[in-house]
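U., I forgot to send this yesterday:
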Amino acid sequence: MQKGMHTQTEHCVRAVQAKDARFDGWFYTAVLTTGIYCRPSCPVVAPKPENMVFHPSAAACQQAGFRACKRCRPDASPGSPEWNRRADLVARAMRLIADGVVDREGVPGLAARLGYSTRQVERQLLAELGAGPLALARAQRAQTARLLIETTPLPMAEIAFAAGFSSIRTFNDTVREVFALAPSGLRTRAPRSTPGHTPGVLGLRLPFRAPLNPDNLFGHLAATAVPGVEEWRDGAYRRTLRLPYGHGIVALTPKPDHIGCRLTLSDLRDLPVAISRCRRMLDLDADPVAVDEQLGADDLLAPLIAKAPGRRVPRTVDEAEFAVRAVLGQQVSTAAARTHAARLVTAHGEPVEDPEGGLTHLFPAPEALAAVDPQSLAMPRTRRTTLTTLVRQLADGSLHLGVESDWEEARARLLALPGFGPWTVDVIAMRALGDPDAFLPTDLGIRRAAGELGLPSTPAALTARAAAWRPWRAYAVQYLWATDSHPINFLPV
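Result:
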């Protein structure tokens, strides 16, 4: 499983013949005799090798004139792990496209965020993915439209607008071209809504590559939940979402073969962004087989991985929010960090209504926190300076943390701020920016676990030993943390 895998015909054919779900999202199979494209694990009889061609993206298949298979729904595959593993131009562009930037700001806006010309961005995306940013965004709009058609009773005109289409005609044409069915035909084929369906609530299934161990993933989110913004209720992690067009509330429930997702949105145009951010928070596009295979090659880590494979890195839906919370959590307990954050939320968060009760606010935006009187913050003076400097730079744009951030540049900018040391910077890189190789050799929990396992426990020696774990050291951190009995490591009861 590697960059450009769609060019390795022999490997792709074997994956299709084996119906290997591990490769879903890595490449797509277009069948010359039927004019459809499938995910590798499609349950139908595999085509003859000479009738298969392979593409790196659903958008490339659609551009080549192929329609999505109605059986395996390739547009709903887990996303390619490449975009979470890499920090180059193409990977950063794909993260921004998933976040809806092309629909909101166009290709010039995408290029501006990346710091490149539109021509450079288009050329690199075409070279690697066989489709430009407009085609990739169009494929995402088609997927959003299908979700809304199948899971809501909304009129088609509202769905077209919510999915980002500029006209009803474009919506109809795209759905017919991609799915070989009119929008009404898609709705007719969809499973009937279950009794008791709540109006305004979207029920979705978020796919992932197996295995997935939910213990530390949901345990971490629940144990560090900020009252009013997050909670664990009835087997689900719930939180509020600040989104481009409004706000939302999501409930995420771990299931054996998917993550149950219930979304309530103030503006349906935010659906693709909300899904993308939830997937990133839960690290659902990771390749656990590749991660565990490399980490398991270390004899001292191997028993941890064999015992509980498929650990993910718990991330965030809002990079700026996480950076603020990382500062609040410096040198204090998890409970104390939650208390500090809850005070900020109550005093400066934006109130929202939760139909189920329990959630009350959006986490304060940097602009709101930058306006706070520093003397009102109940924390040591040095940490107060760290927090106020951070939120001021986030608010005025001199520091930006987002899906498009260059990881090394962001690290350098954070390290230049007062009160930011290697631990704070790398925990932000790991959990907010999504760097899969971020490492915390000075963390006390990591050093304690390393000593108990027989690994070097001094930061320099542990860093040297961990070189063999690259580029997956953030996942090694999860396995090492999980040796402790802290609540972050256990699925809440």
